[in-house]
């Protein structure tokens, strides 16, 4: 295998999948990126036991149509199907069912890892276990994932029976979240981040289970609406989002009876709009995702929302989910038992950076951690406080591999 490389000079190597990461963990501006998308094929699929082996450059979008006719679906899927298999492992992605299935890495049987010494290592929980645990959630720093074997989930349908429960404020959400998880495979809450007073943290809890009607047809993508060009400034501000949030809350609240919805609209709503990120303008966006332990979550999540409000920053997509207690095999996996809040902010320069510092501090003070896979900002101290085992990954990192994130937090921050 001799993957193509892209750009750079002598700053090391880094595998590059489909470029869907929000942060700089997939950047290596001082070195070379190894393009993995050409290595996209299914090697083997056990239709009876639901074990798939595939090259790491294949995307989830390409996997789903191959497994669906046999009645299988991904045990864990993130909010976009445009990520590669290797990227899903390297970022140990999570979905709306962490309380039942854990992370993507929990379903990896084994993987083949090419290191800079020229050897290919078969890694699993019983063979080269240390490399296996470092590679899951290891952000591509242990070498090139050539292929992987993953366990799939048997389902009755690709369609989802969706149920929407409005909640009046943040406390209301916390009061119903655990019981909701116990009854459903999937659950995620959308919050109106701009609501204030007694309505602070209001939103809708969106739950779902696979239907039993046997629909396993993956619809081909037709025409997709698109943001045609990059805006000179962000279209997402307090005024536009206040109107959007009100309309969205009212629309969702009026559709609370259980109803059938398609796979794409339930799991991958943003995939239905091409170049949606252009709405944020030329300066782009920052995403902040944190997880707060159960015991401090009510206060910590409220403090995060208050900090954003006090800073006058509007989040377009504000999502709150409950993580379960299933541990990932990955030593640097982000999820832990608690609640995870995701906020998206247009980049307004120093004002936004100051807010991110504040959000990081609240997270750490609450005993939580910030997601490194979506980060482009956190300090070395914030990373170390959230991930005490980072040094274990450093000892197992392939010396020829590095990333902008690792330079910024683990290396430059501790030299």
UniProtKB/TrEMBL annotation:
Residue span, FAD-binding PCMH-type domain: 1-155
Signal sequence range: none
Pfam families: FAD_binding_4
Family matches, as InterPro entries: FAD-bd_PCMH, FAD-bd_PCMH-like_sf, FAD-bd_PCMH_sub2, FAD_lactone_oxidase-like, Oxid_FAD_bind_N
Protein's recorded name: FAD-binding oxidoreductase
Keywords for the protein's UniProt record, in alphabetical order: FAD, Flavoprotein
